[in-house]
Amino acid sequence: MHLTLNKxxxxxxxxxxxxxxxxxxxxxxxWAGLEVNMMAFIPIILTHNKLSNESALKYFxxxxxxxxxxxxxxxxxxxNHIMNSMDITNLLTSxxxxxxxxxxxxxxxxxxxxxxxxxxxxxxxxxxxLTWQKVAPxxxxxxxxxxxxxxxxVILLSSIVGAVGGLNQxxxxxxxxxxxxxxxxWMIMSTLISINILFIYFTIYSLITLTIILVLxxxxxxxLTQLMTNHYSLSLISVGLFMNLLSLGGMPPxxxxxxxxxxxxxxxxxxxxxxxxxxxxxxxxxxxxxxxxSFNLLMMSPKMYWSNKSLISLKGPIKLLxxxxxxTLPLMIMM
Length: 335
Description:
Elements: H1 5-22, H2 27-45, H3 50-79, H4 91-105, H5 113-119, H6 123-130, H7 135-141, H8 148-165, H9 172-193, H10 195-218, H11 236-248, H12 257-269, H13 273-298, H14 315-334
C-alpha cells in the first residue's frame, strides 16, 4: 500500500477538507470542506479498471447531490441572517441538512449507493470510505438538535438494512459495506447521546476495520470462497483475523463489544428498551455473517481435513485460547 506523489496529494486534501469542516464556524465553511474532501477523494478511487471508474462516477453524483442540498440550505440560512450560527430554525433546512448528511454517510434509507461503490474500490480506497470519510458528516450531525423522529427512523432502517443486506453476500467488500451501514446505526445513535461515546465507538470501529482490511489486502482476498482454499488458515494472522471479525460483530468479551455496551447502557437509562432490543437483534444477524467468514477461514481449508498431519491443526485453536486473556483485558478493566 505504498503511496506515490499522485496519491499523496489527493490524500493530503482529503484530510485537509475534513479539517476545514471540523473547524468551521458556519455552514458555508463546512460545505466548502466537504467539497474539498469529495473532489480529493475521487482520484484515490480511480484506478485502471472499469469498476473503479463506475464507482467514482456514482460517488461523485451522490456526494454532489448531498452538497447541493447543504448549499441550498446554507443560502436559506444566509437569507435568515443566521449563517454564523449552527442553530437550525428554518423547517426546510432542518429537514434538508440531516437528509444530506445521511446521504453522504450512506445510511438507510439512502444507502443504495454505498455497497455499489464499495464493490469497485481497491482496498486502500475502501479503508478511507469506511472510516475517514465518515468523520465530517458524523461531526456535523452532532452540531445541532436533530429531529428525533427522523433520526430514529434512520437508525432503525440502517440497523435492519445493514444486518439483512449482508447475509447473502459473497464479496468481502460488500459484506464490509453492509456491516458499515449497521455500525452507522450505532454511531448515529451515539450522536444523539454523547460525542464522547461517538468518539470511542468510531475509534474502535476504525481500528478493527483497518486491521481486517490490511489482512485481506495482504492475502489478496476479494471473495468469500477464497478463504476456503487459502493455505494459511491456521496461522497466527488468520487467528487474529478471526478474532477481529468477531470483535467487529460486537461479540463479548472482545473489545468491539465495549462501544455497543456504552450505547446500550445509555439507551436503557433513558428507557429506550425497544430500540435497544432491535439494535441487539440486528447485531446478532451481522455477527452471523462474520462467523460465516470465520468458519470459512478456520474450518474449511484443506488443512482441516483429517489426515496424518491433522494434529498440527490443533495449534490454531490452542493459539486462539491462549490469546483470550489479552482480548478480555479491556473489559476486565471496565469492571
